[in-house]
Specification:
Blueprint lengths: L17 H15 L5 E5 L8 H9 L4 E5 L1 E7 L5 E6 L7 E5 L68 H24 L14 E2 L9 H5 L5 E3 L5 E3 L9 H5 L5 E2 L5 H9 L13 E6 L3 H10 L8 E6 L7 H10 L3 E6 L13 H7 L1 H10 L7 E5 L5 H15 L11
Parallel strand pairs: 1-2, 10-11, 10-12, 12-13
Antiparallel strand pairs: 3-4, 4-5, 6-9, 7-8
Protein name: Hydrogenase iron-sulfur subunit
GO molecular function, one term: oxidoreductase activity
Cofactor: FAD
Length: about 425
């Protein structure tokens, strides 16, 4: 039992279903031959919910022996049997068991871990992305918090054992959910609007290719493979794949990508619309680009709860931190803002970004932000990035207040009044 699982050299995770499978096979043996005996050596025993009753049934069976321990040796025994040595048992001593057959309850590995399985025409490859984030051990990655069935290939939904380890009953239930999401996707495409998470968004990215330098940043950074390239190297959008996250919008150094309802000019006007106090009065103005998926709802809840949010902040919602173009930072600092806070979804091991890697991309772009601040002769600390979950209301407010206090340690932005 637990053969090779929770093992850094094999499978670092627990498949969860093996315990029940071992118990089931032991029951089959006992039913087929009442004189037979079954030994189950386990590291952990997981039988959740009503399956605990099944586990207790096997515990009461006099022909089924269960013990916690580690198998340290399997060798040839007497009379053609197999000798098994078990250590670290609950009894605190080694056990020697002679059996006719040894079965390893190995873990579950998805077919997508080694083979693409699908034959998709994406510049990133024919299969589902699995290993780029290095979080899912070959299983189809998904945002389990909000979108448990979606993959990074629009219209393809993961279910069953390529989604995560599960039993047959769980896989059937999982498939029902995935099928319903697929139906929703078909309806959305027929009606011409976006699917999750910006459902009913009819806008899509438009490219002014006359200014395109073929830098490929938009095509490489798109988390959903919605952009290919034509023969000239220009971005070639596939609208039905697009999730309207705006990552391409934030990636483009030429600022040639816009949505009808979300453009470079629109955000620029929001930045410039703030009345900026004259320098010397000690009135700081701070800008916060806030992700609309997690950070903004957290701040909304903070306002509803009448939390203390610094009045110095001007908040601009963005589709994703990946949609924050470096030009926004330059425009804001040139306008006279004393500091800029990027507040988005969590990334990394506990990532919750609705668009997979928006916050991570924003963090990578901080190097470009540092260069921009250096050109303006301003301190790098004036622009920083933090992440919060949607339920971390106190943490979101704390980040704003801490940044507000930190900025008071700097001189006012010398561009005020210009």
């Amino acid at each position: 039992q637990c053969a090779g699982q929770r093992d850094e050299n094999h499978l670092p995770y627990c498949s969860g279903y093996c315990c029940l499978a071992s118990l089931k096979q032991a029951k089959y043996i006992r039913e087929a031959d009442p004189e037979a005996k079954a030994f189950i050596i386990y590291d952990h025993m997981r039988t959740m919910g009503i399956y605990e009753n099944f586990y207790k049934t096997l515990q009461d069976d006099p022909g089924v022996f269960l013990t916690k321990g580690k198998v340290v040796e399997v060798s040839e025994g007497e009379d053609g049997k197999v000798k098994v040595i078990v250590d670290e048992t609950l009894l605190g001593e080694k056990l020697e068991i002679n059996v006719d057959l040894v079965v390893l309850a190995i873990g579950m590995v998805p077919v997508t871990a080694e083979e693409p399985v699908l034959n998709l025409e994406y510049r990133q490859g024919p299969g589902l992305p699995t290993d780029e984030l290095e979080l899912f051990y070959g299983y189809a990655d998904s945002n389990y918090v909000c979108f448990p069935y979606e993959t990074r290939r629009t219209g393809i939904y993961a279910a069953g054992a390529i989604h995560q380890p599960m039993t047959i009953a769980q896989a059937i239930e999982d498939a029902r959910g995935a099928a319903l999401k697929a139906i929703q996707c078909l309806v959305a495409i027929e009606e011409g609007h976006a699917v999750h998470p910006r459902t009913w968004d009819f806008a899509y990215p438009e490219f002014d290719l006359k200014m395109c330098t073929q830098c490929k940043r938009c095509t490489e950074e798109c988390p959903f493979g919605a952009l290919n390239e034509d023969e000239a190297g220009n971005p070639l959008p596939n609208i039905t794949r697009c999730r309207r996250c705006g990552t391409c919008f934030g990636a483009c150094p030429q600022r040639i990508i816009n949505f009808k309802d979300y453009s470079i000019e629109m955000v620029g006007n929001m930045i410039k619309a703030t009345e900026m106090p004259e320098q010397g009065y000690g009135l700081y103005r701070l800008m916060a680009f806030v992700c609309e998926n997690d950070a903004l709802p957290a701040l909304d809840m903070a306002a509803y709860q009448k939390k203390n949010i610094p009045v110095s902040f001007r908040i601009i919602p963005v589709r994703c931190l990946g949609a924050v173009n470096v030009s926004f930072v330059k425009d804001a600092m040139s306008k006279g803002y004393d500091g800029i806070l990027l507040l988005g979804c969590k990334y990394g091991e506990n990532y919750q970004c609705h668009f997979i890697k928006g916050s991570e991309l924003a963090n990578r772009r901080m190097e470009n932000v540092a260069e921009t601040l250096q050109q303006l002769a301003l301190e790098q600390e004036r622009v920083t990035l933090h992440t919060v979950a949607i339920d971390e209301v106190e943490e979101a407010v704390k980040k704003l207040n801490e940044f507000n206090e930190e900025m008071k340690g700097f001189e006012e932005n010398p561009f005020k009044g210009w």
